[in-house]
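Section 5: illustrative case.
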């Protein structure tokens, strides 16, 4: 209702001003009152729509409400001069402070608008990209503004300013309006090229509001630069419609589906990026290339750039460098994340997720390598195979959580009994393998393992004694046809022989044990961790 009333007022003002249906004084009063009512409506709608919302949905509405509230205060000053004092406000005036301050709050609101996480969601390390993306948004806007300003100054504005000779401060304030509008428009366009699902409609209203505001600000800057003292009401149409459109943006429904601004863009069927992504990438550089080309052409024809173009051009180039540095830092961070992910995936592929020990795949790979190395150097391969005794009692009696805790504790003890150059692996549910790099230490390490397991484990506040039956294998480096499966089979034979002799014992494999290794090797090769 409020939005419809304000839009109707804007239409009435335009009709009355354009067709001169009323004398100038009533039209001027109606124009200022329409702007004041539109600013008030925009402020109230932003604050009212923030009620009951949370997170960024609430913050950006409150920020825009504050911004348009300050803008309305500036409009009160402007209306006081026009309607009450019947005089033109000085250039600049306190009204300009309110008008320009509004754009600062809108800028911050747009940056908050880009954060579309669910309230209470966990901030992941990847979310740090959001801060960099916000910085890039602002830098892109500044690059476009600097490039377009150099372009317009070189082609039109310089000659116009020299002819009208406005005061430097008045010209600076007047030109600040469209320049800041361009920054905000670029940010809106950049936000439109990323996947902010559920915020398209509010963003569309904000974009339309910025366009109308930009048009009126451009007209205002042109008239001030030309030395015009009286701003026609028709030029103020954007100052009536912009707050109303921002109010509609705040009132527009938004989906709660969060999509991060760094989400991977959808690709076409041929695998290429869509046009909107190319717009997102090339937007800050196209005005820069156009401006640079124009300056080069003018320089070639003998029209050298002035000091303003040179200094502002250096500033734009510095902004481009900063933007590239931010992008470079982001790319380096992404590469580091990829390396970390690769290392994590590699560790998960070759290590047991419960105990952190090497898994069966890594153990067999190292065992194959040890066999090949043994054949070249003539050193024997030594393998220990341990199967826990009475583990099922703990696992079934206290539950799988207690069983997992026990396996982790056993893994820690096994690691403490060997060197870092030895390989300790979990081969199955309660089966462990140890590949030693020195055969001379095998008996001592086996005894050390048995001794370590004789100390009770404290699980769920209770002590439990879990021992292990260990099979030991020494492989002759000159033996032909020796494979990892053969060694694992022999170790399994020795381990079962140890179980028959009693719990917590060690048996060294000998052919006289009388069991064919190939019978049990496939079971070990296909076992899976419990």
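Designed sequence:
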């Amino acid at each position: 209702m409020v939005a419809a009333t304000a839009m109707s007022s804007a239409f009435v003002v335009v009709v009355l001003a354009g067709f001169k249906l009323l004398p100038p004084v009533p039209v001027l009063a109606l124009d200022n009152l329409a702007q004041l009512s539109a600013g008030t409506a925009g402020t109230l709608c932003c604050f009212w729509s923030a009620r009951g919302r949370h997170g960024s949905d609430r913050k950006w509405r409150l920020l825009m409400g504050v911004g348009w509230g300050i803008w309305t205060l500036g409009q009160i000053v402007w209306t006081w001069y026009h309607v009450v004092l019947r005089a033109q406000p000085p250039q600049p005036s306190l009204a300009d402070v309110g008008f320009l301050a509004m754009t600062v709050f809108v800028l911050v609101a747009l940056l908050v608008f880009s954060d579309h996480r669910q309230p209470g969601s966990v901030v992941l390390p990847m979310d740090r990209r959001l801060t960099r993306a916000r910085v890039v948004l602002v830098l892109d806007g500044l690059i476009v503004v600097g490039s377009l300003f150099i372009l317009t100054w070189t082609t039109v504005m310089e000659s116009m300013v020299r002819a009208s000779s406005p005061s430097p401060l008045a010209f600076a304030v007047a030109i600040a309006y469209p320049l800041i509008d361009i920054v905000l428009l670029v940010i809106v366009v950049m936000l439109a090229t990323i996947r902010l699902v559920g915020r398209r409609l509010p963003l569309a209203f904000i974009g339309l509001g910025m366009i109308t505001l930009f048009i009126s600000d451009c007209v205002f800057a042109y008239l001030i630069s030309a030395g015009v003292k009286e701003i026609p009401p028709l030029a103020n149409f954007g100052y009536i419609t912009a707050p109303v459109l921002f109010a509609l943006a705040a009132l527009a429904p938004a989906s709660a589906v969060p999509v991060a601004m760094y989400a991977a863009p959808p690709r076409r069927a041929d695998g290429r990026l869509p046009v909107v992504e190319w717009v997102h990438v090339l937007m800050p550089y196209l005005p820069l290339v156009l401006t640079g080309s124009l300056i080069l052409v003018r320089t070639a024809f003998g029209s050298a750039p002035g000091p303003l173009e040179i200094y502002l051009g250096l500033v734009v180039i510095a902004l481009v460098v900063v933007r590239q540095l931010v992008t470079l830092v982001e790319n380096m961070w992404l590469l580091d994340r990829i390396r970390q992910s690769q290392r994590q995936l590699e560790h998960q592929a070759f290590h047991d997720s419960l105990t952190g020990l090497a898994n069966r795949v890594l153990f067999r790979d190292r065992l194959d390598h040890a066999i090949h190395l043994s054949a070249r150097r003539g050193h024997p391969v030594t393998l220990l195979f341990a199967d826990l005794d009475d583990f099922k009692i703990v696992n079934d009696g206290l539950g799988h959580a207690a069983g997992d805790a026990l396996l982790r504790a056993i893994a820690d003890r096994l690691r403490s009994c060997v060197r870092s150059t030895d390989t300790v692996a979990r081969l199955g549910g309660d089966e462990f393998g140890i590949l030693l790099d020195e055969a001379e230490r095998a008996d001592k390490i086996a005894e050390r393992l048995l001794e370590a397991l004789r100390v009770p484990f404290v699980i769920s506040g209770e002590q439990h004694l879990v021992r292990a039956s260990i099979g030991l294998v020494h492989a002759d480096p000159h033996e032909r046809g020796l494979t990892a499966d053969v060694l694992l089979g022999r170790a399994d034979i020795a381990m079962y022989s140890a179980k028959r002799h009693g719990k917590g014992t060690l048996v060294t494999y000998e052919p006289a044990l009388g069991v064919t290794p190939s019978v049990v090797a496939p079971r070990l090769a296909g076992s899976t961790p419990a």
